[in-house]
Design a protein that fits this description.
single chain, alpha/beta, Rossmann fold, 7 helices, 10 strands, binds adenosine-5'-triphosphate
């Protein structure tokens, strides 16, 4: 199985502090990679690098057989990135937020697909409320509905379980498992203990660039 996304000799320094050094990492079809480490160890920074959003690093990124920089558009069209912040627009309703995401992604989409995505994350009945009026967990669910909207193989998720209740955590874990079982790839950071379902590759970031790949 050839890896879809590969990082070789990846190093990153921020504010004079080495976050990680000479990191090798690969994520391919059917794999879930979890980046672990204490607060400030560089997990978000690594996810931003690996999703093409931050380029102040040393090392090489490859997508398939090509340097990522050469196939950036193709890479981005295969990716869903959900950041630490939900990235949703407070004044828009849940449905409008999803329409906005689809427009940004160049998808026409349909209201039926958006309603289906909201149903999958347990938000039926809340679709027409401005998201400012939703709870923190419901707002996170609006963001997570993006995973249902556009089928893309690579999911990069920064703390996706934040503010989600027990039932939502179980549903999201199942969703991640199904995506991987269907040949997708998931790269995530979470402080939440994942229920063991299939194999999880772990990347441990330490303080001062002391990194371990398990
Ligand atoms: N925008 C920024 N400008 C400058 N330095 C930053 C910036 N964002 C993060 N850093 C630095 O990079 C370090 C790593 O931050 P990062 O957000 O990647 O850590 P993290 O492991 O995701 O932490 P957490 O578990 O708290 O979310 C921080 O300690 C900080 O010093």
């Amino acid at each position: 199985m050839s890896a879809r996304l590969q990082a070789r000799n990846l190093s990153c320094e921020r504010d004079g502090r080495m976050l990680f050094r000479d990191l090798d990492l690969a994520i391919g079809p059917g794999e879930l990679v979890r980046v672990e480490g204490p607060n400030g160890s560089g997990k978000t920074t690594l996810l931003k690098i690996l999703s093409g959003q931050f380029d102040d690093y040393q090392g090489e990124l490859r997508w398939g057989d090509a340097p990522l920089s050469r196939v950036r558009e193709a890479f981005l069209s295969n990716l869903v990135y959900l950041g630490h912040a939900t990235g949703i627009k407070a004044a828009l309703t849940a449905l409008e937020n999803l329409a906005w995401y689809q427009a940004l992604a160049g998808d026409t989409g349909s209201e039926a697909s958006r309603l289906e995505a909201l149903q999958a994350v347990g938000l039926m009945g809340f679709e027409d409320l401005p998201v400012a009026q939703l709870s923190a967990g419901q707002q996170r669910r609006v963001a997570l509905a993006r995973l249902e909207l556009t089928p893309r193989p690579l999911w990069v998720l920064d703390e996706p379980f934040t503010a989600i209740d027990k039932a939502g955590v179980a549903a999201l874990e199942q969703r991640l498992h199904d995506h991987v079982a269907g040949g997708g790839s998931v790269l995530l950071t979470t402080h939440h203990d994942l229920t063991a379902q299939g194999s999880v590759k772990r990347v441990q970031l330490g303080e001062g660039g002391d990194d371990v790949i398990l």
